[in-house]
């Protein structure tokens, strides 16, 4: 019997003995066991399962575990998952399953409407977004530590705070590698293992293209590339089978009995060598280019760059393209300790706040809209602009444009000072508005940095307000807005991430 037929036959023999497809809630596997979450344990035929030739035993824990052995389980699990899917599709649906099907159809429609480029950006964002809480926590501690050092306070504690703040950033490449492999269907720990090569101190003994490597060279971009390569090497070893995925092909490159030993070894070895002798150098050049490019942009075209970035950030968020900026921010934080782009982009939220205040004053008779603004403004001041975007400015049309004008003015203000030599940066990504103050860092002290950022916010508020108040409405639209209750329930979407890149 062909290997794939044998594995499918094993899966087909197991399925009815665990109560059939409808009794299976979820499927996973470890190195040796098929792990099932079952709806009704009483439907399982333990003795019949143990009698199957491929089954080495069963274990009851929080999941029902069928021991198949190393190598075998990685091949049987995808076949078992495919059988469950096939059998479930042929059964009549219950009421709950009809509801689930509706949700799936909605998700499928959304998937069809998504472009490949946006989907790729979303996957890149999925790698970095889980890191944001650690970036924020460590960034705030770094800011506190810098303040204590400048004041000369608690000199016995500041070295400990520096270690706490810097530990995560020193190993961020490992976490990026782990998340990359997880997102693209590989074994996460192998992605982390390959990415850890980048931060290993011993790489300083290796010379590539006439240059000695430095620990951390290539940073998060190198880690992302290394983990992606590890995913494809792992798939190559398994001939197209991703861990935990249903699709499979014939296994031929690595013998089944040796898979647990050979596949991880080849994955780490091949990916590691390519990382050392290619990716670290290339990613290092790209990372350096990003740092120099951002600095050059703000040093030479600060006001104009700030105007463009602050003005266009809200449309980028609307299109989902802002996610492309996340790796750039992370690279700048890793290189320089802060990203100079985020405070400029945060001005987009300031323009939105000024716009909302103007709409509130102009819509004097529209209590529904005014109530929405009153409830959304506090979040807007803290950098969460989506309730104002979707509930106020975007439905009204022209105010969305005038809000962008306010963001452009605030961005130009911060960019101008950057061109004059006063850089304003953030030690983490995620927060915006007033919530960004604890994360601010620049090249001329916290007081100067905070004052410039506050000036940018004030500029965004004022220009966004004035542009909306005087140019945000036509005479007819203003009459219509106050003549009858505006949208009875302005669309308030579920919370998205704060205005960030």
UniProtKB/TrEMBL annotation:
It is found in: Cell membrane. Residues 122-487 form the PTS EIIC type-1 domain. Pfam families: PTS_EIIB, PTS_EIIC. The keyword Methyltransferase does not apply. Keywords: Cell membrane, Kinase, Membrane, Phosphotransferase system, Sugar transport, Transferase, Transmembrane, Transmembrane helix, Transport. The active site is at 30 (phosphocysteine intermediate). PROSITE patterns: PTS_EIIB_TYPE_1, PTS_EIIB_TYPE_1_CYS, PTS_EIIC_TYPE_1. It is a multi-pass membrane protein. The chain crosses the membrane at residues 127-148, 160-178, 190-213, 258-283, 303-326, 338-361, 400-420, 450-471. This is PTS transporter subunit EIIC. The lineage of its organism: Bacteria, Bacillati, Actinomycetota, Actinomycetes, Kitasatosporales.
């Amino acid at each position: 019997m062909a290997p794939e037929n044998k594995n499918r036959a094993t899966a087909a023999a197991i399925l009815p003995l665990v109560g059939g497809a409808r009794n299976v809630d979820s499927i996973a596997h470890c190195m040796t066991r098929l792990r099932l979450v079952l709806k009704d344990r009483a439907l399982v035929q333990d003795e019949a399962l143990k009698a199957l030739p491929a089954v080495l035993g069963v274990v009851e824990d929080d999941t029902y575990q069928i021991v198949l052995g190393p190598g075998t389980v990685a091949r049987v699990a995808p076949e078992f998952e495919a059988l469950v899917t096939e059998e479930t599709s042929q059964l009549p649906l219950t009421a709950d399953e009809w509801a689930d099907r509706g949700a799936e159809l909605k998700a499928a429609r959304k998937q069809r409407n998504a472009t490949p480029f946006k989907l790729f950006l979303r996957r890149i964002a999925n790698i970095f977004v889980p890191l944001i809480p650690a970036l924020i926590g460590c960034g705030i501690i770094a800011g506190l530590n810098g303040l204590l050092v400048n004041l000369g306070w608690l000199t016995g504690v500041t070295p400990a705070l520096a270690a706490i703040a810097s530990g995560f950033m020193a190993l961020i490449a490992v976490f990026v590698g782990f998340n990359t492999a997880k997102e693209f269907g590989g074994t996460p720990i192998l992605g982390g293992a390959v990415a850890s090569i980048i931060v290993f101190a011993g790489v300083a003994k290796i010379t590539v293209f006439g240059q000695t490597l430095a620990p951390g060279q290539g940073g998060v971009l190198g880690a992302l590339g290394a983990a992606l390569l590890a995913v494809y090497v792992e798939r190559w070893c398994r001939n197209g089978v991703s861990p935990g995925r249903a699709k499979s092909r014939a296994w031929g490159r690595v013998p089944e009995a040796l898979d647990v030993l050979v596949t991880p070894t080849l994955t780490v070895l091949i990916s590691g060598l390519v990382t050392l002798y290619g990716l670290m150098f290339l990613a290092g050049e790209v990372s350096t280019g990003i740092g120099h490019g951002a600095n050059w942009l703000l040093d030479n075209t600060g006001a104009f760059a700030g105007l463009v970035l602050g003005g266009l950030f809200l449309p980028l968020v609307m299109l989902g393209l802002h996610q492309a900026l996340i790796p750039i921010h992370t690279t700048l934080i890793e290189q320089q300790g802060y990203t100079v782009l985020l405070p400029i982009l945060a001005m987009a939220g300031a323009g939105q706040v000024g716009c909302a205040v103007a709409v509130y004053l102009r819509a004097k008779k529209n209590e529904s809209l005014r109530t929405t603004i009153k409830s959304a403004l506090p979040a807007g001041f803290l950098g969460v602009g989506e309730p104002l975007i979707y509930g106020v400015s975007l439905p009204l049309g022209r105010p969305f444009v005038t809000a962008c004008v306010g963001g452009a003015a605030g961005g130009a203000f911060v960019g101008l000072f950057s061109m004059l030599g006063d850089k304003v940066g953030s030690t983490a990504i995620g927060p915006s508005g007033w919530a960004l103050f604890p994360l601010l860092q620049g090249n001329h002290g916290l007081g100067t940095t905070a004052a410039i950022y506050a000036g940018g916010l004030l500029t965004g508020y004022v220009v966004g307000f004035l542009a909306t108040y005087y140019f945000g409405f036509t005479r007819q639209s203003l009459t219509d807005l106050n003549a009858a209750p505006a949208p009875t329930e302005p669309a308030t979407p579920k919370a998205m991430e704060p205005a960030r890149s």
